[in-house]
């Protein structure tokens, strides 16, 4: 199981912060995101029973994508003050659980996940845990993407079959749809005036961006004009949308074997005043 660390951490933070309550230790250290992250993670481990687990993280805001497009993710606000100290804290906790924290400067967590899913998928089935639909492009016969939905313990598991059944797309076509419609979250525009519905229809009909460009005469005048006006941005947006699966990341499979040192894990959780979580995880762990 490859875990999208930031996706889980932000989800855990906002799930509780929206109510106005921030869990803290007696010394005042905020821990709500860490607590929620561990509940999400442990529920997924308990549900899907992976033998190996690794957690992938974004290392910095500057990546090869921001080099290609300066405004990439430039619209994102600063992380809340209560969340900032939990970035390093959660890595301490996952390390105490024996789960490796992985990331490479210049790349995003998605790229690390893509690289490892391709590498480990040669020998075993891989599960990707996230809330980010961009990762659906990584679905394959050996890789499933588990999307966390609203409500604790509520998942949608995407395989090539379920992805096609729900969206009418092959995994590779997810990239082309994003290239056409852009991504407001990541702050790249795609083709101005083309939204998700039109992008999906075009890719389903013509199979790829290349197929669309080869059949411009078959498009309506309005859509054709929009694509012609934004052709350069279309190609750039598709490059930004594509997950890079050849990150120079060293990680042997053996390092990811889920073998928890119960005493070390319990000590860390007790230090963070999470005894209830320690008991819950301890009861589920089999030495």
Extract low-pLDDT stretches. Answer: none
Number of strands: 6
CA radius of gyration is 20 Å
Query: Please, what is the oligomeric state?
Result: single chain
Descriptors for this entry?
alpha/beta, six-stranded mixed β-sheet, 287 residues
What does this structure look like?
47% of the residues lie in helices and 8% in strands. The chain is an alpha/beta fold. It has a six-stranded mixed beta sheet. Helix 7 (171-181) crosses helix 11 and helix 12 (262-271) packs antiparallel against helix 13.
Short description:
This protein has 287 residues and is an alpha/beta fold.
Chart the SSEs and their pairings.
Blueprint: E1 2-4, H1 5-17, H2 32-48, E2 54-56, H3 64-68, H4 84-96, E3 101-102, H5 109-120, E4 126-130, E5 143-148, E6 155-158, H6 160-167, H7 171-181, H8 196-206, H9 209-214, H10 221-229, H11 231-241, H12 262-271, H13 275-284
Helix pairs in contact: 1-2, 7-8, 7-11, 12-13
